[in-house]
Design brief:
The chain has about 400 residues and is α/β, with parallel strands linked by helices. Helix content is about 35%, strand content about 15%. It starts with 12 loop residues before the first strand and ends with a helix.
Length: about 400
C-alpha cells in the first residue's frame, strides 16, 4: 500500500475519507479527538496545495436526512483547529458539489454532508461510489475505525480510483498494532479483555490464545466465565446461552498453557445507580448480589501479575467505569499498565475513553481509534478497507 506522503498531490482533487463520527449533545461536539487526529493528513495535503474534499459519516441516520446528524458543526470545529475557512456543502454527491469542487482553488477544503444520509453508503452500491469518484483524482482512506465495514466510501469507491493510498492516521494504526502480530507464547504478551459480553469478544479471545501468555478477564463477561466454572454470581449479568462457549475457551487456554485470570472478589450494589456498595468474594457471592466492578483483591492480583508483562493489549473496561463508584478497578489497573516499561496498546470498546478519563492515555504506547476495527485487524491481520488499497 501507498501512504499519502508517497503521492504527488499538488493541485489535485484529493478525497479523504475521515472518521468524524464524534460524540455530540444538542449540536455541540463533546469530544473532538477524532477531528484532531485527522489533522496531520489534512495538513500534509494542504502543504502540497491540494484541493481537499473531506467525507465522513456521523451517527446512524439510516439513509435519511436528519439535522441532528449533520456534519456542519464538525466543519466549524475543524475551521477553528486549522484557523482556516472550511467550505461546507449540504450534500455529498450531485451536480452542485461537482461544480463547487471545480471552482475550488489549491489549498482550499470542502467538507461534504453526512455520507449515511444515503442508504447506498451502507449498502456499498457501485452507483453511489461512482458518484463519489467523480469528485476527485486521488482517494485517501484515513478512517481506520470504519475500515472493517463494507461501506461504499471505504470499499466500492477505492476500487474505482486509480490513485489511492492510506492517510497518516491509518498508517500509524497499522504500524503500531502490527507490532503485536509476531508475538508468541513466551514473549510475555498479556491481554486484558473486559466489557459486557463474551459473544462480542469471542473472535479476538480465540485469536489471542495462540499468542498470549496470560489473559486477564474483567467486566460483566467475567461473570459468564465464573458461572461456567460452577460459581454462582447472583443477579449479575451472565450470558447463560454462552456458558458452553466460555468452557471451550477455558479448555483451549489450558491446552495452550495460557493463564486465565478471573476476579476473586467484586464490588456489588443493589442497582447500577446505587452509591451503597459492598465487597463480596467469588466463593461467597450473595444470592441477590449484582457485581459492577472487580474488587480490591482482584485488582492487587492483576497488578502483581501485570508487573511481568513486556507487551500488553487492553480491550474493554473492568467494570462500569462511567459510574464513579464502579471505576476504581479500571482506573487503578490502567494506571499500573501505563507505568510499565512494556509496549502497551489500548483499543476497542470503551478503552480509549477509559484511558482518557483515567488520565493515562498519553502514557500508553498506542491508543487505537478503532473499536471493532482494531479487534478485527488484530484477529484477521487485515481489513476490507485495507485490502482495496
Amino acid at each position: 500500500m501507498y501512504s499519502i506522503n508517497e503521492l504527488a498531490l499538488r493541485e489535485k482533487r484529493v478525497f479523504i475519507r475521515v472518521d468524524y463520527n464524534v460524540p455530540m449533545k444538542d449540536g455541540i461536539i463533546t469530544d473532538d479527538t477524532r477531528i484532531r487526529l485527522s489533522l496531520p493528513t489534512i495538513l500534509h495535503a494542504l502543504k502540497n496545495k491540494s484541493r481537499i474534499i473531506l467525507a465522513s459519516h456521523l451517527g446512524r441516520p439510516s439513509g435519511s436526512r436528519k439535522k441532528e446528524f449533520s456534519l456542519e458543526p464538525v466543519a466549524a470545529r475543524l475551521a477553528e483547529l486549522l484557523d482556516q475557512e472550511i467550505y461546507f456543502f449540504e450534500d455529498c454527491v450531485g451536480m452542485g458539489v461537482q461544480q463547487l469542487i471545480r471552482d475550488m482553488k489549491p489549498g482550499q477544503i470542502l467538507m461534504l454532508e453526512n455520507l449515511r444520509f444515503y442508504a447506498e453508503e451502507i449498502e456499498n452500491t457501485n452507483s453511489f461510489a461512482r458518484d463519489l469518484a467523480k469528485l476527485a483524482d486521488i482517494y485517501i482512506n484515513d478512517a481506520f475505525a470504519v475500515s472493517h465495514r463494507k461501506n461504499a466510501s471505504v470499499y466500492a469507491l477505492p476500487r474505482l480510483m486509480e490513485t489511492k493510498a492510506m492517510g497518516l492516521l491509518m498508517k500509524n494504526e497499522i504500524e503500531k498494532l502490527s507490532k503485536l502480530f509476531k508475538l508468541t507464547h513466551g514473549d510475555k504478551f498479556f491481554a486484558i479483555i473486559g466489557g459486557a459480553k463474551v459473544s462480542d469478544k469471542i473472535g479476538i479471545i480465540r485469536s489471542l490464545l495462540d499468542s498470549v501468555d496470560a489473559l486477564f478477564i474483567g467486566g460483566a463477561m467475567a461473570y459468564t466465565f465464573l458461572e461456567a466454572q460452577g460459581h454462582h454470581m447472583g443477579k449479575s449479568l451472565v450470558e447463560r446461552d454462552k456458558l458452553d462457549l466460555a468452557r471451550d475457551i477455558l479448555k483451549g487456554a489450558k491446552a495452550r498453557n495460557v493463564e486465565i485470570l478471573l476476579p476473586v472478589d467484586h464490588i456489588t450494589a443493589p442497582s447500577i445507580d446505587s452509591f451503597e456498595t459492598e465487597i463480596h468474594s467469588t466463593d461467597e457471592f450473595p444470592e441477590n448480589g449484582i457485581a459492577f466492578d472487580i474488587g480490591p483483591e482482584t485488582l492487587q492480583l492483576y497488578q502483581r501479575k501485570m508487573a511481568e508483562a513486556e507487551f500488553v493489549l487492553w480491550n474493554g473496561p473492568m467494570g462500569v467505569f462511567e459510574k464513579e463508584q464502579f471505576a476504581t478497578g479500571s482506573f487503578e489497573l490502567a494506571k499500573t499498565v501505563s507505568e510499565l516499561s512494556a509496549y502497551t496498546v489500548a483499543g476497542g470498546g470503551d478503552s480509549a475513553s477509559l484511558m482518557e478519563k483515567a488520565g493515562v492515555a498519553e502514557k500508553f504506547s498506542h491508543i487505537s481509534t478503532g473499536g471493532g476495527a482494531s479487534l478485527e485487524f488484530l484477529q484477521l491481520k487485515t481489513l476490507l478497507g485495507l485490502e482495496v488499497l
